[in-house]
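Internal QA ticket QA-208
Title: Verify multi-chain structure generation after dependency bump
Assignee: T.L.

Test input:
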Amino acid sequence: MYQKSIADQAKGLRAKEFSSEELTREYLDRIKRFDPQLNSYITVVADFAMAQARIADERIAKGDAGPMTGIPLAQKDIFCTNGVRTSCGSKMLDNFIAPYDATVVERFNQAGAVMLGKTNMDEFAMGSSNETSFYGPVKNPWDTKTVPGGSSGGSAASVAARLAAGATGTDTGGSIRQPAALCGITGIKPTYGRVSRYGMIAFASSLDQAGIMTQTAEDSAMMLNVMAGFDERDSTSLDKPVPDYTANLNNDFKGLKIGLPKEYFAEGLDSGVASVVEAAINEYKKLGAEIVDISLPNSSLSVPAYYVVAPAECSSNLSRFDGVRFGYRCEDPKDLEDLYTRSRGEGFGPEVKRRIMVGAYALSAGYYDAYYLKAQKIRRLISDDFKQALNQVDVIMAPTTPTVAFNIGEKVDDPITMYLSDINTIAVNLAGLPGMSIPAGFSQNLPVGLQIIGNYFDESRLLNVAHQYQQVTDWHTQIPKGFE
Amino acid sequence: MSLDNSEVKRIAHLARLVIDEQDISIYAHNLSNILDLVEQMSSVPTDDVAPMAHPLDTLQRLREDKVTETNQRDHFQLVAPQVENGLYLVPRVIE
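Actual output:
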């Protein structure tokens, strides 16, 4: 059962070929057997999952089931889950039992999906390799010496190793697309504001967006149908109608204009990755797409602008962790100042502290204009580049990452090198556009991702473009050796 | 851009973070590198560019000023490090 996509599992459940209890039990057994090698889960909720599965089976028997009813999923440990530890990968929240559900979690509960557990992640979603987690690094199932990417590294590894049928992720600078690429799965970051951020622990509020990691584009469409939509509890949630994301999957896209930005195919791109992406583009030509050379001239400024905007917003958002109302508190504080500074100093790891400090500096008196305001202006330039390009073409394609997965420990002591591993994904967050990564092949026996970027609220088209490719290729069905 | 140890201490104080003495120079080194990376922005003329705070330039949604939440103080205080009679306890501030 575990090899099947969500779409096929849903059919099997509906046809009574197997029950959600049997399906859930199979995933729980697989987690027990394989996850010690990967560390992709922080918390597994076996009893809770089995109880949800029994309820799902009752709903299916009564004919009261939706497409996601009974499907076993994993939630990134950034989403609050009522009564279940929500750690955000941090010592700061190691003891935090969330007192409410995030909207995303609530919607999956209503849809009857099963939650297997909470997946590992970079601490507070700050990282590109899942090495900043308080719970230790996640390993890439394609080669356990390498990283799965981050920050949604646990979600990516669990889906790649088939330890969940699908998983949620969040993407602030590439945290869904980059790990999806490095683990050989499909990932989508919807338009900023498309999915509610309520109950999703905030990192950089003008960039954060919840999304999905699955085997196939069709599965992503099914999950997005549950997640997308207005939520009055999130002040940045957008009140726009939600289409049925599965409706256009089979559309013929003959004449689709695909833009290839030259800046994403320049120096720094690994030649193995380049040839895999080239082959994927050729496949699109065969499917009837037209290729257009485009330019996004301000691309090189996206990493610098991001490393002002994201830290500034993080320093503000993470000020709520003060050792008073929830989370870690230091031992024997001698006064209030000591309580704040030691709880935060001991509760946060080095990468989080670095980013808080960069943000505090950028926002401090006398520096605001030179840093935050300047970065917001650069952000406009980057966004305008995309606007112009998307007037010419329907979608933009590029490699999701410049290289395949790197080794654990390789970049961990050098923040700048680590930051540059997100060079192809960050601009999309600054612009707020939807983006996907789909498996496009292998280089050095490791997966390569093809990134597809579209216009605001054009998720349906991205999913259609991805789905059509997956009808003629089988990269997305491959399971890493040793996890069959 | 190069930050010295005293600037790192000042920033740590602004951010209410204790940094171990032996780590200060590592932070100084890493933060300086990050600020160097960020510095690339300064060569780009942006005088006529409007800052972008929201990807869709949407304004903050407003709602009517009325109570919509129910009181769940006891429930929320279950995760607090130290409470008494519904109050959060911290070290004494006023002698």
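Spot checks passed. Chain A touches chain B through 73 residues (CB under 8 Å).
Status: verified.
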